[in-house]
Amino acid sequence: MNFQLVNFIRSSIDNGHARSVKAKKTIISSFLFRGLSIVTTLLLVPVTVNYLNTTNYGIWITISSIIGWFAYFDVGLGNGMRNKFAEAVAKNDHELAKTYVSTTYTLMIIIFSVILILFLLINPILNWAKILNAPSEISTELSKLALIVFVFFCLQMVFQLIGTMLIANQEAEKSSLFGFLGNFLALIIVYLLTVTTSGNLIFIGLAYSISPVMIFLLASFWFYKRSFKIYTPSIKYVKLTYVKDLMNLGVKFFIIQTSVLVLIQASNIIIAQLFGPEEVTKFNIAFRYFNVVIMFWWIFISPIWSAITEAWVIKDIDWIKNVMKKLKIYWIILSIGTIIMLVFSEFMYRIWVGSEIEIPLSISISLAFYIISYSYNGIFYQFLNGVGVIKLQLYAGVFSTIFYVPLAILLCELIGVSGVIVANIVFNSINMVWSTIQYQKVINKKAFGIWGK
After folding, report:
1. Is 46:354 a contact under the CB 8 Å cutoff?
2. Domain that holds residue 269
């Protein structure tokens, strides 16, 4: 019976188009690594909260969110390379693929070297205590923390390109493995800190910052010496004439990413300023609980972007339509699972972080509906990003960026902390309408004007 089950599973995986088989194998492998990553992420929260206390944990989350904003100063080069690399590989033009990789690495090193120098100049004059609404007596400590996190952040932005290449090559499970290893290493270090030291923000900053950099650095050495040897970055392959190809698409992705940044990351800043660091902790705990759904959702859709790029290049439209139908079914299942998580959320919070921190039900309800709307849009964004039709998404992002902060502040004043989430839901709902329409137009070759750009 067991052999029959194994054979059935194997035949289910191996049945279908070669691209689908590759995607299914990627998804299954990613489930393992992403699942382990989720477990380590969830374990990190109570360990870190207990080590720092509620207020300092809120400060840590807020400062890491602010520095995370600079991730979008890559002006979309990572995603631009992802599409161009996938297109070149689909055409078996490995030299062109290496050119895109080499040029992207060079541009990223230049960009983040300049950003790091500018940060080193302005950090001494920044009042981090005021920015974070934190006690003034730890201002010096916060300045050191910001410096440490920012330096390693800039290194990570360059080294993590290896993960982007793996995703572009439809090997997302290996990128998921990096995420797990980074979280696991951080968990070990933080646990050792709880045994050997008392709450220290600097140590936490080092633990969280060094871990992913080490993993991406080791991964880069491993893959560029083996399966990606033909794509190893080289100065000889840096061609400025290809910057335009990367930037045309990259800048659009940059603007879109900036809107995502504002809609998600700015929430911590708004809450810290209006309600204090303690409320940031409550919001972040609830967000991480429901974000488990998104993390699993990305297991399904991460391989789809590059697979769609390949299918679009060779005009395999039927395969794309079939995949999109299946993703909609998976989204319904995901939505049901999210509602179940909402029902048991209070019970799960108590098990996870204890009864000392009480999460308002309004935050949990808002986050559940945010996750459902966000994951729905993810289906169509993967398609639109894969085919490079993103101008309408860009305009929607600009609209959201302009109006999110004032709307979030207004809703916070009216309904409290959950206002930042409700503001996100408003924009997600608008995006659900136009993204569905645009997909139908593009896939059926009826996209004209802004719908097809």
Report:
1. yes
2. 15-452
Confidence of residue 22 (pLDDT cuts 50, 70, 90): low
- Indicate the Cα dihedral angle 178, 183, 187, 193, nearest 10°: 90
Question: What would the two tokens of residue 194 be?
Answer: 């709880």
The torsion defined by the Cα of 313, 317, 319 and 324, in degrees rounded to 10, comes to 110
- Residue 3 pLDDT > 50: no
For the segment 304-318, the average pLDDT, to the nearest whole number, is 84
- The answer to whether position 427 is within a domain reads yes
Residue 124 DSSP code: G
145, 179, 356, 416 alpha-carbon torsion, rounded to 10°: 80
CA 45, 48, 51, 57 torsion: positive or negative? negative
In a domain, 8, yes or no: no
Q: How far apart are CA 348 and CA 93, in angstroms?
A: 50
H-type alpha helices, 276-360: 277-313, 317-343, 345-353
Structural domains in the chain (count): 1
Helix, coil or strand: residue 388: coil
User: Taking the mean position of all CA atoms in its chain, how far away is CA 287?
Assistant: 14
Bigger pLDDT: 329 vs 7 = 329
Q: Does residue 448 sit in helix, strand or coil?
A: coil
CA 79 – CA 164 distance, rounded (Å): 8
pLDDT tens-digit map of 359-370: 999 999 999 999
Encode pLDDT of 82-134 as tens digits.
888 888 888 888 999 999 999 999 988 998 899 899 999 999 998 888 888 78
Q: Residue with structure tokens 């800190």?
A: 193
Query: Does residue 177 sit within a domain?
Result: yes
Cα dist from 183 to 35, 178, 187, 214, 397, whole Å: 12, 9, 6, 11, 30
Per-residue pLDDT for 21 more than 80? no
CA atoms within 13 A on the CB side of 233: 19
Q: Helices (H) and strands (E) in the chain — how many of each?
A: 17, 0
CA distance 408 to 195: 40
> For the chain, what is the mean pLDDT?
84
How far, in Å, CA of 404 to CA of 407, rounded? 5
pLDDT surpassing 50 at residue 4 = no
DSSP letter, residue 449: G
- Report if residue 5 sits inside a domain: no
DSSP output for 177-242: HHHHHHHHHHHHHHHHHHHHS---HHHHHHHHHHHHHHHHHHHHHHHHTTTTGGG---GGG--GGG
CB-based contacts of 333: which residues, under 8 Å, 6+ apart?
none
**For the whole prediction, is pTM greater than 0.70?**
no
